Amino acid sequence: MVNRKELSPEASPGAAFGQRLRQARDERGWTQDELGVRMGYTGTHISAVETGRRPPTNRFARSADRALGAGDKFERQTRALKNTALLEGFPDYVRQEVRAVEIRLFELGLVPGLLQTPEYAAAITSGAVRRGAITEQQAEDRLALLAERQASLDRTPPPLVYAVLDESCILRPVGGPRVMAAQLDRLVAFAELPSTVLQVAPFDLGERRAFDLPLYILTLPDRSLMSYAESAQQGQLEQDMKFVQPLLTAYHQLQAEAASQAASVAMINEVRKGAP
Questions:
Q1: In DSSP terms, which residues pair with 137 in a beta bridge?
Q2: What CA–CA distances, in Å, run from 85 to 36, 140, 170, 191, 234?
């Protein structure tokens, strides 16, 4: 078979799913297009899932089970992927984040994870546990993953990190006054690093704010780009340049509209005055 990509099921849960899907398809002698017809997807979509470029959704897994006569094998594997309480695409994003040479962040409502203090992060996960959104174990897993992500920023040379925070990130109290005060101090310290740029997008940008959802854009060592965007219930990882490039352009436009780093730090310090 020409140009058949080798799979590495140990690379990620999504890659393991893709390997199992390919194996089941090969056992029946079907092409990706033939399986796609039976599942209601294109052969290109099947290829993307098999090679780990697109995460399998619950609907996709159920279709695979029906088409391949696999009972609920693929749906159970997809549920296992979700048991970490991480959104689809995020684990794959994190695996690339630790090797990125440039990281661009936009966040609303909450300080981005890479910039959070341990106390701020713990307050967020504790709130999720109290709401029943995640379990205690999942909260611990989230905090451990966050610590690993933050530690990866200390590599040499460090990645360039650009962060644009909606003004809501610095005004929304999390964890009480002392936790919030320490978090604001952390943001100011982050802005002072030689490999970072921190900007606040003020509320009065109005419709000029480029994004309504959190967005992350990575530049990898080979200068390729990938993006990750998420809502409350869904994450979307994208590596196709025809989709990522417009997001990068919009991010640059947002940086131009946001307050400068000096003005942003002044805004943070002004909010900090009201904290103990």
A1: none
A2: 29, 11, 26, 31, 11
Instruction: Please check whether residue 71 lies inside any domain of the structure.
Output: yes
Query: Where do the DSSP E strands lie in the chain?
Result: 102-107, 160-166, 196-201, 215-219, 225-230, 235-238
Distances (CA, A) of 146 to 142, 143, 234: 6, 5, 19
| Residue that terminates a domain, selected from 27, 50, 82 | 82
Handedness of CA 145, 147, 153, 156 (dihedral sign): negative
- Omega prior to 157 cis, within 30 of 0: yes
Domain range for 70? 9-82
Do 264 and 147 have their domain in common? yes
Is residue 102 a contact partner of residue 218, using CB atoms and an 8 Å limit? yes
pLDDT tens digit sequence for 136-156: 888 888 898 899 999 999 999
pTM of the entire predicted model: 0.70
Residues 130 and 170 placed together within one structural domain of the fold? yes
User: Which has more pLDDT, 255 or 16?
Assistant: 255
Question: 144 and 268 share a domain?
Answer: yes
Whichever domain contains 267, its CATH number is 3.30.870
